[in-house]
Write a structure and sequence with these properties.
Structural class of chain B: mainly alpha
Distance between the termini of chain A: 6 Å
Helix content of chain B: over 70%
Shape of chain A: elongated
Strand content of chain B: under 5%
Shape of chain B: extended
Number of strands of chain B: 0
Helix content of chain A: 55-70%
Number of helices of chain B: 8
Order of helices and strands of chain B: HHHHHHHH
Number of helices of chain A: 14
CATH architecture of the largest domain in chain A: 3-Layer(aba) Sandwich
CATH class of the largest domain in chain A: Alpha Beta
Strand order of the largest sheet of chain A: 3-2-1-4-5-6
Order of helices and strands of chain A: HHHEHEHHEHHHEHEHEHHH
Oligomer: heterodimer
Largest interface: A-B, 60 and 50 residues
Largest sheet of chain B: none
Chain lengths: 283, 241
């Protein structure tokens, strides 16, 4: 067995990759390195848009569409955006087209007491809860929130909440933020909120689905996109609140470096074996 | 005294190890954790769906029937879906499903041509010469890769290579665009793969930071015990064989 064949055998053992990946993730968390985080123009553009276009008293609708598993990727972005909206004096209506919405919203609320401190439920923010119906529900909410749901997540009639007296349809909102782990949700809002009502949209998406929704940003159907944990870390830096996004960047960087090393090694071994086999066959 | 938080950390850490043990091989602990997750998720979703039904339909109907009377139609159509469990009246379920599909399709079709076709096409009609060289390069890439990607998926009419003689100009143009399409898609798949790694690693990091770190020692102890249980299970399974 040649040297390259031995290397190939070692590299192809998935247990090795998984073990090294686990170490690459946990070691930087236990002992942070503090690698620098640059802010991309894409994230800065989103931040600047909110800073320049939203005025005190503005209204923002936030779609909370992710499962508990996706909290680490999306919750930091949601928290950072919420902080910026409250700092700007905006009022927020949260809603969810996914059944896990109420649980992830309550976890977000519990994890950010500093952001919600001094904010009054019903006046500064409202959570509509889970609204079933998918795209039909999104269309119905765009037309009339009060026509779609009568009570919020906690059973309070919407007409008793001061904030809900100020807003009802898509045209009443200055911005709609879709924080989602599913590609379809972005389609729903582009089709049912942006296209008929031209309400500006902002996306906060899992990294894995970012390429799928990129065409909407390219076609200016959304003002921008915050991509995964990396985008969230950048946004945390911009709004000045350190959170899980920044805390996870060392681990992300080291684990990506490991994957790159494995890809390079794998290719070197592959091409090496191919060249060797041409010059006399594999041994 | 062991608090609920510590118990939760033990359970969380054990379940994480059991679920991730699948990357080594399938085992009874993985199956237990998987079935537990599916059961809890199904139960939670059903309770949430019933709560939503109550908030959106039943409550308005019972408190203000004069305004919300038409909700009865939707409730009946929804209930009809359960008729598929009846051998005699299963055909009634088609009405509920049919109306649901019709409404969904109509709502989507109302804006899909503009949102998903027209706007996407207009976004690729770009100036190919601009004062900024980076923008110019980007625009060229976008136009060429879009054309290349579309060319790659031409399955009906395309110029074929003649069996004898020199290929025609349309054939060369087709081959160039076809190749650009392949490389463009490969770059796209590469970006998708890199983003996939970021998401999966992000899930792993967040499990540690959000669930395990608050009770670090309890989590580590439980994780070690769970790992020992898996190893013991696999060894015992092998010795039986």
């Amino acid at each position: 067995m040649s040297f390259l064949s031995k290397v190939e055998k070692v590299l192809s053992a998935r247990e090795l990759l998984y073990t090294l990946l686990l170490v690459a993730v946990i070691a930087p968390i236990l002992s942070p390195i503090g690698l620098p985080i640059g802010i991309s123009s894409r994230t800065r553009d989103v931040y600047n848009y909110i800073e320049n276009n939203l005025k005190p008293g503005c209204h923002v609708y936030v779609e909370v569409y992710y499962e508990v598993a996706a909290r680490g990727e999306l919750e930091p972005a949601l928290m950072a955006l919420t902080k910026q909206f409250f700092d700007k004096g905006c009022k927020i209506v949260y809603g969810s087209l996914i059944s896990t919405g109420p649980i992830v919203f309550s976890l977000m609320l519990a994890g950010a007491p500093d952001i919600f401190a001094g904010k009054e439920y019903g006046k500064d923010y409202v959570f509509l809860g889970y609204i079933s119906g998918g795209e039909s529900a999104a269309a119905s909410l765009a037309k009339s929130i009060k026509g779609t749901v009568k009570v919020d997540n906690y059973g309070n009639p919407l007409e008793t909440l001061p904030l809900m007296k100020e807003v009802d349809s898509a045209t009443d909102f200055d911005l709609v933020v879709i924080v989602s782990s599913g590609t379809d949700t972005f389609n729903y809002y582009v089709r049912q909120w942006y296209t008929p009502y031209h309400t500006p949209l902002l996306f906060a998406a899992l990294s894995v689905i970012a390429p799928s929704i990129e065409p909407f940003v390219g076609a200016k159907q959304a003002i921008g996109m915050i991509v995964g944990q990396r985008g969230a870390a950048e946004y945390e830096l911009l709004v000045g609140r350190k959170g899980l996004g920044i805390a996870s960047m060392d681990a992300q960087s080291i684990s990506h470096l490991l994957i790159i090393v494995f890809i390079v090694l794998g290719n070197v071994v592959y091409w090496g074996m191919r060249v060797t086999s041409r010059g006399g066959g594999r041994k | 005294m062991i608090s609920w938080e510590v118990l939760g950390a033990w359970l969380g850490a054990a379940l994480v190890v059991w679920i991730y043990s699948f990357v080594y091989r399938d085992n009874v602990f993985y199956k237990f954790a998987e079935h537990l997750f599916v059961g809890v998720a199904a139960g939670y979703s059903i309770s949430l769906a019933l709560d939503s039904l109550n908030r959106v339909a039943i409550k308005p109907l019972s408190t203000n029937p004069a305004v919300s009377w038409h909700y009865v139609i939707a409730i009946i159509l929804g209930l009809l879906m359960f008729m598929k469990y009846s051998k005699k009246y299963y055909w009634l379920a088609r009405y509920g499903v049919g109306v649901n599909i019709a409404v969904g399709t109509a709502l989507a079709l109302r804006t899909t041509p503009m949102a998903n076709i027209v706007r996407q096409i207009t976004a690729t009609i770009l100036p190919l010469w601009t004062p900024d060289p980076v923008t110019t390069l980007n625009n060229w890439l976008l136009v060429l890769i879009t054309l290349g990607g579309l060319t790659y998926f031409l399955f009906t009419i395309f110029p074929k290579k003649p069996e004898a003689g020199k290929p025609s100009l349309p054939y060369y143009v087709y081959r160039v665009l076809y190749t650009i399409g392949i490389y463009g898609m490969m770059v796209g798949f590469g970006a998708l793969f890199a983003n996939t790694i970021m998401t999966r690693v992000g899930f792993l990091i967040s499990i540690y930071l959000q669930y395990l770190q608050p009770n670090a020692w309890a989590s580590i102890t439980a994780a070690l015990l769970a790992a020992i249980a898996i190893i013991a299970g696999i060894v015992m399974g092998r010795s039986r064989k």
